[in-house]
Amino acid sequence: MNETVNRKWRYEVATRDEYVKKMKAQLDEWNVEIDKLEVALSKAGDKTRKDLQPYMTKARDAREIFVAKLSEIKNSSEASWDTSKAEVEHVWKTFKQSVKYFKSQL
Q1: 46-75 and 3-43 are packed helices; what angle lies between their axes, rounded to 10 degrees?
Q2: 37 vs 99: CA distance, rounded Å
Q3: 88 with 23: CB under 8 angstroms?
Q4: Which of 62, 80, 69 is nearest to 23 (CA)?
Q5: Rounded Cα–Cα distance for residues 29 and 26 (Å)
Q6: pTM above the 0.90 mark?
Q7: How crowded is the C-beta side of 60, counted as CA atoms within 13 Å?
Q8: Which of 3, 69, 76, 95 could form a disulfide linkage to 62, CB 3.0–4.6 angstroms apart?
Q9: Following DSSP, what letter does each residue of 60-104 receive, concatenated?
């Protein structure tokens, strides 16, 4: 690699590593939020539990997709990590919307 490409590669890796670190912190936040929602759901009435269970499942599924996409980013090439990053951010946005709706229904 020439020096310019080498510097860019090191910058991209640092940026990617920082991004992964940030996303892991959001995953920790996500896990706490899901735990809170599960407690709230367990205290809800039968009808509310039945109505909201699909949203809890959706949140858990989104978390699993998030973890998989984060793993892809860690192992992605320079060319493909932007796409993976966009996918992770889309999953994060979907999760936040689900949580917001879920909370509004409790």
Answers
A1: 170
A2: 8
A3: yes
A4: 69
A5: 5
A6: no
A7: 10
A8: 95
A9: HHHHHHHHHHHHHHHH--TTTHHHHHHHHHHHHHHHHHHHHHHHH
